[in-house]
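queue> pop job 88
queue> type: inverse folding (structure -> sequence)
queue> payload:
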């Protein structure tokens, strides 16, 4: 049951955006758009700016220079976008109660919460774990619950910061299956990953960052077939970029 706000946040556009932490440049004059469609996957070495790019797209960090717009507007309610961090915090309550907490700010009528919770738990493959204390779930289950919680407000843009980091192959596959299901519902996903295999499996578009700079972006198949920068070629070859 959808309770979507009528105003879109897409496309998200970075126009010559620079982000600094003190004197350190984290993102360096980024111009980039996230539009509706298949998942966009951010790749690049540690410290390349992937997490900062996601937080800026969410509206959590303001540019030091340049301009951010959401559907052409310089500001937009975050109700239609959500972010899941690499290590999400679970409330000290059951999985269902974590969802109820998220639904409390969703605008969805309380009478619809039970159906919405059941729908979300089924979507992430946890329909039999609703009464389990959230902090006693496995790492993969907690990440899936975090995805369900992020979807409680029915966003059109979902930002994921390395959602499978430190997970075993089975848990990684479960998360990837959920991501495909979410994308299949028309929700735009922008995610970072350190796993090139995952990027190949999920990406419709790839964004490659290095030292806070946008080095390459475009359709995933074209990027993996032919890189235009030496940095991208070295990164895909497994070399350490510093």
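queue> result:
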């Amino acid at each position: 049951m959808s309770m979507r706000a009528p105003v879109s946040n897409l496309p998200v556009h970075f126009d010559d955006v620079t982000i600094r932490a003190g004197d350190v440049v984290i993102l360096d004059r980024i111009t980039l758009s996230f539009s509706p469609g298949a998942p966009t996957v951010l790749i690049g070495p540690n410290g390349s700016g992937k997490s900062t790019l996601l937080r800026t797209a969410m509206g959590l960090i303001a540019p030091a220079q340049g301009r951010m717009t959401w559907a052409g507007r310089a500001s937009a309610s975050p109700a239609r976008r959500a972010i899941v961090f690499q290590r999400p915090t679970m409330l000290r309550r059951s999985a269902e109660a974590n969802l109820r907490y998220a639904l409390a700010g969703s605008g969805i009528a309380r009478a619809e919460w039970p159906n919405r919770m059941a729908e979300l738990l089924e979507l992430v493959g946890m329909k039999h774990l609703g009464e389990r204390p959230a902090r006693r779930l496995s790492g993969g289950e907690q990440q899936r619950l975090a995805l369900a919680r992020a979807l409680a407000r029915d966003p059109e843009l979902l930002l994921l910061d390395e959602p499978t980091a430190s997970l075993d192959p089975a848990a990684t596959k479960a998360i990837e299956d959920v991501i495909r299901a979410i994308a299949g519902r028309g929700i735009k996903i922008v995610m970072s990953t350190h796993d090139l295999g995952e990027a190949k499996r999920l990406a419709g578009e790839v964004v490659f960052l290095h030292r806070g700079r946008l080095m390459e972006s475009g359709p995933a198949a074209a990027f993996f077939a032919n890189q235009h920068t030496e940095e991208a070629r070295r990164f895909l070859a497994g070399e350490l970029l510093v």
